[in-house]
Amino acid sequence: MGIIVRQSIKSTVVNYVGTFIGFLTTVIVATRWLTDEEIGLTRVLFEAATLLACLAQVGITSSAIRFFPRFKNQGELHNGFFFYLMIIPLIGSLVVVPLYFLCKELIAGYFQARSSLFVEYIDWLVPLMLFLVYLGVFEVYANLLMRIVIPRFIREVVIRVLIVTVYLLYGFRLIGLTGFVAGYVLTYGVAMALNFWYLSRITSISLRHDYSSVSLPVRKDFFKYTAFLMIGIVGNGIASRLDLFMVSGMLGLASGGIYTIAFFMAAIIELPSRSITAISTPIAAEALQAGDFVRANALYKKVALHQLIAGGFIFLLLWANIDNAYHLIPNGDDFRAGKWVVFYIGFSRLIILFLGFGYSLLSFSRYYRWALYLTLFVFGVTMLSNYLLIPRFGITGAAMATLCAVIITYAAQQWLVLAKIKGNPYTRESLVFLLLLVGLFGLNSLLPVAESPWADGIYRTAILGVTGGGALYFFHLSEEIDRLMQRILHYFFIKRD
Fold first, then answer.
1. Fewest Cβ atoms closer than 10 Å to its Cβ: which of 132, 225, 448, 453?
2. Quick one: 197 and 240 in the same domain?
3. Are 239 and 47 in contact (CB under 8 A)?
């Protein structure tokens, strides 16, 4: 248990450091040295390659977690498990790459009119896909061996530092656009190689295996589970990237770049959920396997409340300072068209924070097949809403489409969770906090705007933070937060004495 706690704490620290570096990379450096079209190019390349990588991995990064206990032994080779981690994505890649070239003209045709720059560099998708495939494979194997910190450090910190370096090399005209794209892609190759090197240091890397040790029932179970899982992963992967693809295809890479910056700003709302979900997910899985719906539902309520509180305050402070943010980031006027994208995406992320744990409960229960049907439903709603709203409202329409899709699909998901496993996140505390949050948004609208964006941001954040924190403590919405605030107050009280 000690190693799990230590690794979790270190991983959380790395997540926060990585997010800060990512903020500097995307919001400060990229907006200073790249055009909105070039930002759109890097994002579309990455998201498209990630989608291809999901196909090529054939669900192995998820199914490995389920099947590793059947291979695990006291030796370092774990009955040749590493061989299967390597060979299955290789087979998947050998299928996906030819399919990509078959569909290349169709993909290029969709982007040609308004995103010709992406078409010019479209073949870089293949090496980037391969790097992402095995980057994910090596990460998951390290995680299975209870070594999550270094792979997380490589993904969250090393990759972002290397990308900043590529941005600066391009910004100072030391490399051209082709060199910029090549450097961006090779960054993930370096990360993949570092993960492989780390694995070689903590375990024996060998392709030796005993095929007879994999029984026929295990093979059948693996193929059945993986096939089912892969459909869900691919469907969810497409649905989560449709807005960017459709914005870039219908409006152009420049719009995709503006959308990317706004989306990244809103994405910080989800940051607290990473640690909360990582800690809570194994407990939920254990409770549901034991058929303890009461324990699982109690956990659902607690996770939903704390993620709502954390995400709600971040959303409040983000939106309160949105104009200040666009004043302060380099070339902010070029990206200001994404202001309302931040609001709608932020609102959708708040709903996901509150209801998202229900999807985990559904996936871990015996009703896990419903998760697939839900994914397909999400895909359909997302595509339809983007198709209807982007032509009319531009990039804001894409964000509105995301919000509409989230409201509809998460309402359907919550109905399933309630009907199947009696899961219900709603409490008096969550309702009180929502009312408090609405009041704080109202207070923000009444505050006068200071001339300096720095001064405005500081005083606005201070007033909303103190008022919100005081109200949270006064209403006693969370025992855990109450104890934390009491420690803080006690600390400063002792310091004053």
1. 448
2. no
3. no
Whose CA is closest to 82, among 206, 210, 197?
Answer: 206
DSSP 8-state code for residue 25? I
- Would the CA dihedral through 122, 123, 124, 129 be positive or negative? positive
Coil, strand or helix at 292? coil
> Among residues 11, 4, 3, which one has the least CA distance to residue 153?
11
**Average pLDDT of the chain?**
82
Q: Which residues, including other chains, have CB under 8 Å from residue 359's CB and lie 6 or more apart?
A: 371, 374, 413
The domain containing residue 397 runs over which residues?
222-497
CA distance 46 to 302: 35
Domain count, the chain: 2
The pLDDT score that the predictor gives to residue 417 is 84
Which of 190, 214, 238 is the endpoint of a domain? Answer: 214
Query: Are residues 269 and 368 both part of a single domain?
Result: yes
Same domain, yes or no: 255 and 392: yes
pLDDT in tens, 50-103: 989 988 887 776 666 666 656 666 555 555 677 878 888 899 899 999 999 999
Number of H helices, E strands in the chain: 22, 0
- Whole-angstrom Cα distance, residue 436 to residue 453? 26
Distance between CA atoms of residues 341 and 360, nearest Å: 27
In this structure, the chain runs to a length of 497
Q: For residue 270, what is the DSSP state?
A: G
- Which residues neighbour 141 within 8 Å (Cβ) at sequence distance 6 or greater? 64, 81, 82, 85, 199
157 burial level (CB within 10 Å; 0-12, 13-18, 19+): middle
Residues 86-94: contacts with CB within 8 Å, 24+ apart?
A: 86/137, 86/207, 88/57, 88/58, 88/60, 89/56, 89/57, 89/58, 89/60, 89/133, 89/134, 89/137, 91/58, 92/55, 92/56, 92/57, 92/58, 92/60, 92/133, 93/56, 93/129, 93/130, 93/133
pTM over 0.85? The answer is no
Query: Whole-angstrom Cα distance, residue 41 to residue 122?
Result: 10
Which of 164-168, 182-186, 366-370 is the least confident region? Answer: 366-370
- CB of 399 closer than 8 Å to CB of 341: yes
- Looking at the structure, tell me whether residues 143 and 254 fall in a common domain: no
The answer to whether 255 touches 33, Cβ cutoff 8 Å, is no
- Calpha distance 38→58 (Å, rounded): 31
**Quick one: which of 190, 252, 221 has its CA closest to 37?**
252
CA 386 from centre of chain: 20
- Are residues 182 and 227 both part of a single domain? no
Pick from 493, 262, 275, 232: nearest CA to 398: 262
